[in-house]
Specification:
Blueprint lengths: L27 H11 L5 E2 H8 L3 H13 L3 E8 L2 E8 L1 H28 L17
Antiparallel strand pairs: 1-3, 2-3
């Protein structure tokens, strides 16, 4: 995993901004769709994606449109007998973009693990003198 040149270890400005977490992918349904598609080079039929991601027809269709508009998936229309079929495939750019997104998520996990290990899992937060909890 390559480090982000924008964020040196000594420079804390924007350290946890995680610019690589793209809003197109950082949505539960689209994350599931892309994860399903990256494992199937030949693509998946609409019904298969619907079942794998537990989405309704309308919801899946909308998320596919977003991913297609972003150039991450390609949609094919055809027929099986007389029944219309929709096949969805991840594009080369979509694969590249998704893998970069996953690398950014790995960076998030690494940051959490480093902080948790350095500070100790069960340590109480240290507050400056005079701080009290806010009443809700």
């Amino acid at each position: 995993m390559a480090s982000n040149p924008k964020h040196d270890e000594d420079d804390t400005t924007g350290r946890f901004a995680y610019e690589g977490l793209d809003r197109v992918l950082h949505e539960k349904a689209r994350l599931g769709i892309m994860t399903s598609l990256i494992t199937k080079a030949d693509g998946l039929l609409f019904g298969e994606l619907k079942d794998l991601c537990a989405l309704t027809d309308g919801n899946l269709s909308r998320h596919i449109d977003v991913l297609s508009d972003a150039g991450m998936v390609r949609v094919w229309k055809g027929y099986e007998g007389r029944r219309p079929q929709t096949l969805v495939q991840i594009t080369a750019d979509g694969r590249k973009h998704f893998l970069a997104y996953l690398a950014e998520l790995e960076r998030v996990l690494k940051d959490v693990q480093l902080r948790d290990t350095a500070e100790g899992t069960n340590k109480q937060a240290r507050l400056p003198p005079g701080f009290v909890p806010v009443e809700e």
